[in-house]
Structures
1.
Amino acid sequence: MIPLGRNKIDFEKNRCKKIERNKIKRKNKTYNPFRNIMAPTKKKKKKIQNKVLNILNTNKFYAKPVKIKDKVIISIPKAFCFIENANETINILKQINSAIFNWKIKKIYFDYSNCEMLGLDASLVTDIIVLNGLELRKKIGLKIGLAGNYPKSESAIEIFLNSGLIKHLGISKVESPDVRRLDPFAYEKDTNLMTNKVIEYYNNCLKTSGFVLNDEGVNHFNKLVGEIIDNANQHCGENGIWYVSGHFSKNVKSEKVPKGKLTFISLGDTIYESLKYNTISDKTKKKLENQTKYHEKLFDFGWNEESSWTVFALQWMISRKKTDDNDRGTGTIKFIESFTELGKTINNEIPKMIILSGHTHILFDGTYTLKDSKERKGTKVIAFNKTNDLNKRPDEKYVKLLNNKFPGTIISCEFYVDKEYLKKIKEEK
């Protein structure tokens, strides 16, 4: 029998130690607003699934927003677009995602007061996240209030009203006669139907200046757009999802020439992930292995296998499904070339286009173009460097490795519809 007083327990000391241990645990714990998101609720015991949520959750697509009690304020930056400001744009979208899927949040305020440049691409991803969040909240009976203000510039306001969130929420009834739209939420996910809708949208943009694509042009773009949409449908993975959106304005005072936007977005696997884990072509696997071998000595914090393969995937005849009897792997780069050529102005203003997949951001502005390969006759490449050599590292201004990852792929295009330029190339060609 142990005498009283021996091995006496110091409850206060143990309590303090436990508090300290819990502090360390909380500090080291990764912020994850989704950890209990799909847990059964009192109102609905059945587990609820959402494809967009699953993709974002798997990719840890969240960041802490500014929170005041049960309200979140989302401060939209001056440039909210993937072409000009990809890193910050992704971070803001992570905050939106964290807020809409956090059951404790009762209201989200979108502050657009500093936004001068609103990209259709960023606007579309915002809408995808918010609409899926509202749908899921409705199923489990958790309401949320949405509020906000208007962007700062005329062009941003026009996209916001005609093709943005308040349009898709049914709040805005604006139907401007000077705007042509391709709505991403209006049609079924049928690749042939959407390809035809994209061609129709672009033709409607051209019609505002008195032009249309001829039969040859329709067939040409039909093939290229069809491959891009087919890639989005197949390469985003079994549980992926894709959207296409367009917005064209004829009468924005700040823009001398009518300007349009076209965005292809897939959520799911990135280009790199699709090539690394789903390539069935032995020839393509060998080419990718050689690409890593050539670039490995160049890898650092701004360049790695992901960005190397993403650039390589844009080249002619590179596809995870490439076989001897098809011509897959050419559509995206041909589309870029054709769209850039038609989208210029008489003053040689060149439209911008980006491909963003995972951490890799690739910019096209006419500085680097498709040129004949020195190694392989009859083949064109775009290596984004002065010597157009795929074995060398690209120009860091045009191929960037981002801090933030986008869980999928975005092809975002801007194009002009310049009547004088279109008239000139029609006469020349």
2.
Amino acid sequence: MNIIIFGPQGSGKGTQADLLSEKYNLEHIETGQIFREIGRENSELGKKIKDLNDRKEMIPDDVTVEVLREKLKVVPIDMGIILDSAPRTAGQVEPIEQMLAELRRPIDKAIYISLPYEESIARITKRYACTVCYRHFVLGLHIHETEEPCPTCGGPIMQRADDTPDGVTKRLKTFYEITIPVVDEYRERGMLIEVDGNQSKEKVFEDINQKLLNC
């Protein structure tokens, strides 16, 4: 089974992708995390991606496709995948699907986890990350003060610029303007599973599985 998962910031799509990966033996491929890792490398591509990330510019479609291709090449062919945040733009749909076809990984279903705009803001602005081990934490759940050290390694915790109210607003604007047309395309094809993300993660997971089984 090969799946794409979409959702606005704070919808919990990463958590659901992890749960689906475990249940169905899928490789969770999260493009944002891949690019952050590459951006920390002292390579030509790493420097290019870091520069784009620093300038808050989107990674070019051709770079996204090639990075995904290299990542997918090492995933066993008998293991399914769940693509998190790709294709992200309308321009990525055809080249990514073509690349997946070449690798014998056609997409079976797309999942969209919806979430009210205000709830996205509320959830994301509580996120913080360790500057040493890069683990993520939620204020009020994993940490209680922003000055606390990382519970894992003791490193300093900071809030990414993308997770501030202004940062989240910009990211949501990009999502609704750039990615929702991709979601609409899979809806029109009859490939989209839609679930309400404004529930507990357990209920969201239950709803996704129910709809997958009914497909």
3.
Amino acid sequence: MKHFDLIIRTFTVTVLSVFSISGFSQEKQADKTVISVVGTGDIMLGSNYPSNANLPVNDGSELMRNAKDILKDADITFGNLEGCFLDSGGYKKSCKSGCYYFRMPDRYVNYLVDAGYDLINIANNHMGDFGAPGRTNTVKVLREAGLNYAGLENICETAVFEKDGIKYGFCGFAPNSGTVKITNINNAKMIISRLKSECDIVIVSFHGGAEGKSNNRVTRKTETFYGENRGNVYEFAHAAVDAGADIVFGHGPHVVRAAELYSDRFIIYSMGNFCTAGSFDISGISGYAPAVKVFVDKEGKFVKGQIFSFLQKDKTGPVSDQNNSAAKEIKRLTELDFPQTGLIISNEGIIERKNDMLVENTDSCNSLQDSLPVNTSDCILTVQNIIDFSKQFLGIPYRSGSKGVKSFDCSGFTSFVFGSFGYDIGANCISQIQQGIKVVREELQSGDLVFFKGRNDKSNRAGHVGIVVSNDEDGNIKFIHACNRGVIIDELNKSPYYQRRYITGLRILTES
């Protein structure tokens, strides 16, 4: 028996060696149907400026110990390096007041390698804390450690690398001097498109948006902080996906923000701080430190995900949070900012696709288009779905004649919203006012259309339209519409302008 076991073991080793030599192992990896990528937010492993007294306990060796297993359990692990690697010296940036300076010892790069990081963003404000020497040395240290990195203008704008038979492309963006600019969206699109033409999976990182606990919402507008243009992260992320990005990891506000599924691609607008040993405020939501694991198919389409919740402890690194605070906060913000996105996030951090997402599953309603008004009792569309869907476009700019999605006029907005659920209500106010059932103002309900005369029209012809959001027991009517201020919600009873021009209401959908 012992002799037989030896023969079997020898045969097994020989066969495996042959397969490995022939490339079988690599081909199997390349044929994998799902790819996993873990992303984390800001990493600042302790600063040796102004002295080594600012370095963490045990020289930082234990900072990642509690997260290491999760970080290593992925095909690719990404993080944002908030500061430069430099043992000493450099040219300290000029600053009027309240500035932070982050300079990590070169040897600390080994903690990133040991934790399983593959990919590092260096497009952020603190990469320039110690000028050109800091940036140059950081690139050198990362390269010698075998890590992939990008984000500096004209130095390392992109990274292309291969792992397990998959070719990855990466680029990082920020609003700061020396970085590839988040504010130059046309240039960003060209960079991303070029990467997608040569890579299987493209990962995009941005460091943008206003900072602090009060800036945890995705505004869909250009954000400023201390007078600096920090970019329109919503516009940037969508443009990145349109250009070929498969995953978009955001960071910069130092708190978490919402996640979104856009064109089957995963976007998270901020992962907050992850491992920032000292100097930062890590109280309350500023201490939420998620690791976000995303699974995509070989085309980059989102499959599923998981938010692992950690809390930061001063100078000791992230620790596992049994209350799942980060996951719950991302879930809450996602439901607020993107109520109609294709993601469902559980309190435990499980991220799943809404396979029954209404916008993608309106086939059962389409046959009813020719018989408006319709009864939706046997249809997956409800009035609340219409309202929730319409709200995700708040802040989108107005443009005459535009039908979406980057801009709308009034009838373009209403036709787009109803059309997304399979209902053709016409392309302009004149055709839309001929649909549905007329409703007196006192009986308006959520989902009804409201029509107004145009600004300079003295006749009773419809020139503006919106969708009723609510009509409370006191008769306070809120409606969402696209006007010269963009897509906004107005209150009819508090607007003399719209009260004077009000014509009628129409009920397009009725529910039993």
4.
Amino acid sequence: MNSSSGDHREAKAALRVAMLARRAAVAPDILRAASDRVLAQVTALPEFKGARTLLIYLALPQEVQTNRIIERAWQAGVQVAVPAARLDGEYSPVWLKPGDAVAAARFRVPEPVVQVPAKPDRFDLVVVPGVAFTAEGARLGHGKGFYDRLLARLGRRGRCKLGLCLEAQLVLAMPVSDQDVGMDGVVTEARVYRSRVSDSEERLAK
């Protein structure tokens, strides 16, 4: 590893530590209220209203909560899938239906107990978490690269990619590598930020 890539990785690691601490400091009631406002932002988007398939994460306690977004999707007749760990250690989509039991799996991430691969794995809307985002759609994860590799495998089969976070998780800039997959938009409790480089930009409402 050369010095520039080493500096890049160290800068990401330092930002990750700072942003995880910032996220952990958010009180549960503040997070619940913010998650409700994110729900309103997401479900008002034309991409959500027009979706027939949705890939979305099951949230950890410190993340923007997604259970009500999932419920709204089911109510609208949308097929919902969530990431689940494969035997090779990577993540792939599996279907989630109303009433399906979920349990904490690797890294304490909730997954369906009975897993049915979501094929064909094409999704109108893909919703992902992050440790930090920029308003332009750059994303910082936990450093394992699982979401970047999943999104890269989906390619254009993941038609619109949205990151969910709190306003406090937005940063002005962050180090970005060739392996990092950017978002078409970032949704917070305050607004929807559109990517300046996204081919979905014109479809995302403010």
